[in-house]
């Protein structure tokens, strides 16, 4: 696989190069996503879904993941439980889903989030809450890196389940699919959050749904799960 350019690295380029290589593709992807937006449930065959929850369910405190979406996540977790490969969560924030997954599996859970100190209001508190919430789970491995840097660090580790809930624009969602999907073994499941509420992630998801080596496995509004059936 030709590794795609890491959006996080493109942001570090000199101003002019950054505008051409990062800002323009970012804005174009968001514009195209808005102009072509289509709810994900209209892009898939519901008869082929193993897990389908039609309503989002109730809000869960401290996370944007709802009870309906969590059910799909737990179902994917149970479906892959007999697999020996590890799990990765891209975007851990306050550790709600990290702890929930760790408590429902014996597999190692890699929690990927840079938690950059003082980057924006609330980030330092989120990091402390994450650490306290996940500390009881010995199977949680915290990787304080960006998605791209973490993917390089863990490039030798095969994965059975991946939950992507990071930066919700087109170029980052597609990048996360490419780099993390390459670590997913056949039979494993990758889930994407915010695929209905964010135009860029919606566009990336619609592109992912067309990949021949993946089959849509589960859906709840704003979350989709795909099963890898073969290597690309």
CATH superfamily: Vaccinia Virus protein VP39
**Sheet with the most strands?**
8 strands, mixed
The average pLDDT value, as a whole number, equals 96
Give the overall form: globular
**How much β-strand is present in the residues?**
15-25%
Rg over alpha carbons: 17 Å
What is the CATH domain class? Alpha Beta
Can you name the CATH architecture?
3-Layer(aba) Sandwich
Please provide the count of β strands.
8
* Assembly type: single chain
Low-confidence stretches: none
Distance between the termini: 8 Å
Strands side by side in the biggest sheet:
1-7-8-6-5-2-3-4
The domain count comes to 1
Quote the CATH topology.
Rossmann fold
Helix content: 25-40%
Number of DSSP helical runs? 8
Overall description:
With 232 residues, the chain is α/β, with parallel strands linked by helices. The chain has a single domain, classed as 3-Layer(aba) Sandwich (Rossmann fold). The chain has 8 helices and 8 strands; from the N terminus they run ααβαβαβαβαβαβαββ. An 8-stranded mixed sheet has the order 1-7-8-6-5-2-3-4, with helices on both faces. Helix 7 runs parallel beside helix 8. The model has no long low-confidence stretch (mean pLDDT 96).
């Amino acid at each position: 696989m030709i590794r795609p350019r890491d959006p996080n690295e493109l942001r570090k380029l000199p101003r002019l190069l950054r505008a051409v290589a990062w800002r323009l593709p970012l804005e174009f992807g968001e514009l195209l996503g808005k102009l072509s937006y289509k709810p994900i449930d209209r892009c898939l065959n519901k008869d082929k879904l193993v897990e389908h929850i039609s309503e989002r369910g109730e809000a869960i405190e401290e996370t944007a993941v709802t009870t309906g979406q969590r059910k799909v996540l737990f179902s994917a977790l149970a479906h892959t439980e007999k697999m020996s490969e590890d799990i990765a969560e891209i975007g851990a924030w306050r550790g709600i889903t990290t702890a929930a997954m760790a408590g429902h599996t014996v597999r190692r859970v890699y929690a990927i989030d840079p938690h950059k100190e003082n980057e924006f209001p609330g980030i330092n508190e989120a990091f402390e809450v994450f650490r306290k919430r996940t500390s009881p789970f010995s199977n949680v491995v915290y990787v304080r890196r960006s998605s791209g840097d973490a993917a390089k660090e863990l490039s030798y580790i095969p994965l059975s389940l991946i939950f992507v809930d990071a930066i919700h624009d087109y170029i980052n969602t597609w990048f996360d699919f490419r780099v993390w999907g390459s670590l997913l073994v056949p039979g494993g499941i990758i889930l994407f959050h915010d695929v209905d509420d964010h135009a860029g992630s919606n566009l990336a998801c619609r592109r992912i749904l067309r990949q021949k080596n993946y089959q849509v496995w589960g859906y709840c509004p704003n979350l989709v799960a795909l099963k890898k059936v073969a290597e690309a």
